[in-house]
Sequence to fold (498 residues):
Amino acid sequence: MRMSMGFQARQMQVQKLAPRMIQSMEILQLPMLALQERIEQEMNENPLLEQQDVDPAEPDSMDDEAPSADTRSENEKELVVDNDHDNQEDFERLQNMVNDLPSTFDDSFRRSSNRMQEDSDRRHDLMANAQSRPESLNDFLHHQLSEMDIDDRVERIAERIISTLDARDGGYLRTPLADLLPAGHTEEDLQVAENGLKVVQSLEPAGIAARDLSECLLNQLSPTAPFHDEMKTLIKSHLVDLAENRLPQIAKKTGFTIEQIQLLREELHTLNPKPGAAFMETYVPNVTPDIILEQDDEGEYKVRLDDDRVPTLFISEYYRSRLQDPKSTPEEREFIKQKISSAQWLIDSIEQRRSTLTKVAEAIVEHQKRFLDEGPEAIEPLKMQQIADKVGVHVTTVSRAVDDKWIQTPRGILPLKRFFVGGTQTEDGDDVAWDTIRLKLQELIDKEDKSDPFSDEQLVEELKKAGMTVARRTVTKYRKRMAIPSSRQRRDWTLVKK
Fold:
């Protein structure tokens, strides 16, 4: 085989995103709080960026001459640094602006020291009033263990056992005791480990550090509890049958009546199968709506961006004059040009975000009016491509616009993604959303005869009677997603005729 080296010209088309285009998409994707943080970061890094501060308590305090989104001159709005053409046009525009500027630098729009001190105090108050970290499961158990008077060896292995417990797993002991001991351990060491486990299992919450569900429930049973022996029998030998609702089989093996087993099962439900889960930290997102949806006197929906807390940005007039000052050094002029370009792109990106988000929200609201008027059962199938076609943007732009954004509606605060749902067609050719099908499915199960519940095949037939043609596998999938048990598990054996 002959190998050779050479050059070959080949034409190909490759799509690349400019850094500034990437920045515009990033700004569009940011939710309100993240956008505020991004603006604050940019202002710290770019001295040419100024913001128009207005004291909410004094609405008339704004200087009439302060630039705003509506009053800025066209020259300022169109200011873009063009490095490819030596910035000739930009210098001309800047020169026209400089002629209108006062001879001294006007710092009336800079934040005063009092305002900066107020911001600092506000951040300090937020940190001081922040919720303290809740006590973890391990801390809670270690605290109880420290108050016990036990052998040092037992205490050490007990501490090791506690360190392996995870609240997210319910507080179960998943590590074999032998793995918690050093290599070459003896039978005596294993016995010490068993004693340490008994100590941990005696702590609160009851059932902690169990090795399986059966041990967890048994450790919660009080010797003086009603039906102690019967419940112990069910826990030891019939948990799987209980979970599958095979009550007749349990009755046949134990001699208990169906009514007794039903009563015992209700008692078992008072026990906690995951005792450590109560110490699991729950993340509650801080939701701030980006969009406000209101109805006017005629009942029409009006979309409004809730961006009052986003400051109006403009480029410092001082640095504009410095760019034309003959005393400015080339390095200073180059620095100002770069910062002007960066500032203008940020301002334009924020304006583009406002425009795109408003158009997307208006298109969504227009499509889902019935959902807003009548409720979840009236939601219409909607894909992001439909909104993209209507607004005239790419589908990825719609995806970024709705990502992590919330809208305040008369029906509460909802994520924008809530309005996008798949669907199918009825026999009449009408579109119906999956949410509507799920609601109908729940209604059918709520009203079924619990002595003879609907099978998935029967649910398909019932949905078909309501004009919804759905495959059996689809019914099964949504039933499981809705945490609805199978027909056998839903059967109430106390209602079954003997």
